[in-house]
Structure formats: C-alpha cells, structure tokens
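Weekly puzzle thread! Below is a chain. First person to post its structure in token form gets bragging rights.
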Amino acid sequence: MLYLQEHSADPFRDVILNACLHNMALDRQVEGSRAAYMLDIIEQTGESKYYREQILSTLRQLPPELEDYDIEQLFDFARLFAIQGNQEARQAIYNKFILNLSSEDFTGAATIIELDGIKGFLFVASHLGEFALHDPDFVDDDLFLIMAEEQSGQENVSHALAQVQTDDPRIAAYMRVVSNSRARRERWRAESRTNPSTLSFSEIENSIYSRKTTFARLSTWGQHASESDLLRAARKVQTESDPNSLRRFLGIFRYVRFPLDHQLLFALSQHADEQVAIHALNALVIITHPEVRAFALDMISMSFRPESFIRLLAKNFQDGDWEFVEHITQQEFGPEEFHRLGIGVRAIFAEDPNIESIGALMNLYEKGQCANCRVSVVKCLHKLNAIPQWMVQECRRDANFYLRECANKNFEGLGPNW
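Winning reply:
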C-alpha cells in the first residue's frame, strides 16, 4: 500500500484483482475477510469503478472454483460498496442470497444482517423460516440471532420479533427452530459441567473410547490426577494402537509431565498420524531435560519438521541459541510450515525475551503471512523497545486493523505486556 502511494498500480492490476476475488489470508477462518484492506488498495489505484464492477460481476456468477472464504469476501466487498451508497451492490447481496436458498445455501445471510441490522435479520429469518415450515427435520443454530442481538441489542431484537411473529408464520417457525437449538446446547452444557477433575481414571478412559470428551477436559483432568492415575494413562499411551484414542491419552499430558521414559514421546512425535505426532510434541514441550534438547537439535539438523521441533527448545534454551534460531528463520519454508515455525519461535521468546531475538523476530515479520501472528511478533518487538520507524509506517497500513490502530498511536501507552 505504501508502494502505491508513489508508483502506478497498472503492472499489478491482475494481482490486485485476484486478491479481491480470492481471500489470500493464511488462516482464513481466524483472520476473516480481507475486503476492507483490499478496498483501501483499490481506492489508491484510481480504478475503483473497474474493480467494483469485476467484484460484483463475480458475485453474481460465483464461478465453481471459488471457495467458501472467497465467496464470503465477495459478499463483504458488496456490503462495503453498499455502505458507500451503491444500490447495485446492495441488490446483488439480496439477490444472491435468495438464489443461494434454492440449493439450501445460506451464504449471504450474515452479510445482510451486518448491513441492515434488525431489518436484515427479519428478512433472513423469514426466508429460512420457509424451510422450517415445510421440513420438520430442518435445523439451524442461533448464529444469525446472536449477530442481530450483538449489533442491535437483545431487547430491540426481541421487541421487533414480538411485533412480527404473529403476522409472519415463517419467522415464528424459524424462531422455534432457533429456540430448540439453544435448548439442545444448554442440555449439552449441563451434561458437560461435571468437573473433569472429579472423574476416576476408568471414567476418563471410557469417555476417550466413547469419544465423549474434549482435549480441554482431558488436560484439565491430567492437571488434577493422582500420580497413580497418570501412570495408568501413560501406560495406555504405551500400548494404545488406535490413533484416535492415542491422541486423547496423549492429550492428558498437555500440562503435566509424562511419567514414563520420554523416549516413548520421541518416537510418537514422529508418528505417521500427524495429530498423534502433534500431541506427543505437546507433551514434550513442557519437559526440561538435556535429552529433550538433544532430540530437538537432532531433528532440526536432519531437517525433519524443524518448524515443529523448534518448540522443544522453549524449556531447554541456552545462551547463544538465538543465533541458531535466527538461522532457521532465514531458511525456506512453505507458508503453513513457516506459520508453525513462528509459533515455536514466539514460545521461545516467552521464555527468553532478550535483544538477541530481534533478528529472528524481524525474519518472522518479513516472511510470515498470518496477520494475527504479525501482531504477536510486533508485540515481542515492542516489549524490547525495538520497533523501527519504517515498521510503524507499514503497520499503519496493515491488513490487521487492530495493528493499524496501535501503530497510529505510535505503540504508545500499551504497556510492556500489550
């Protein structure tokens, strides 16, 4: 964006359009749409009309190669255009939502609610209620209702619903579906409120084999389990062959030390099942031991998933290691692998936040593609009082608008643990 302030966008027309039509965020589920960021770029090109026409045309047609996150970004673009007063964009949103309903696709509903608040929610509820009236098995959660309540206030939404439900049986039917969804969730929460720390090993074991537990509950149980129960769980890790069950037994040791020889975890961290390997690494991360450090260095030296094994150095760091870490961050990785590498480097920084880390952090900033991780890297540099002025200028135009806000304040008044 800073480049476009002094140079023509013409050579990058296709690149910019591609980034408008496709969500280029690394972690799209977390980072969301890039429409607002790309709109800033579009407005700097001097060709806003061209890009707007291309975006709306693609939204109307929705080529089959587009992914869900791409489509959501197109809807988001149309919402921003509509906010600017473009009626064509507003109509495109509503038309496409109605057309999508023919295939029971509700994409566009959230955009309508974001754009038009309670009025938009009632429009969505009425159309989805058509399914509820004619299909006794129709199920939907309360996401759209929550969106409306957060945007317009629960009391205002309730008042609006009370006025229209008696006149529109479709909205009444939809709200019955939503109410049933909320009731089911409350029953599930009630069943899940049992404090896992009170469960016996046999109960935990049964919940693992019946798949009626979560990793969060397993790790909580592990933190409160007796030494004898932890030993029983560790022996299940030793003997279990089913990957799904093995992952969960390993999950018990997320925050409590594995009581058997950690050589077993070394082997499992190289398991063919990726999730088993991840949970074995999670169990190793908390262990401080020379053998763990040596194992991590061996794996990294063999270029065997260095982006993952670097995490083991966090609790096994030694003076001079930051130079080694910086060297690793200079190597070539795929986007996902570099993303994991960054998480590991920041875990090391949490244990050893000193100025020797600046080179590695700068590499993460320059090469990382995750906007949320970039915020975390800048936080690390801020803690060291090491954010250069050129980075401040870049952050003021970042795809992450929270980072923009902080940069616009020159990162002042944020505190050391911002």
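Puzzle host: Confirmed. Bonus trivia for everyone else. The chain has four domains: 1-106, 108-191, 194-287, 293-418.
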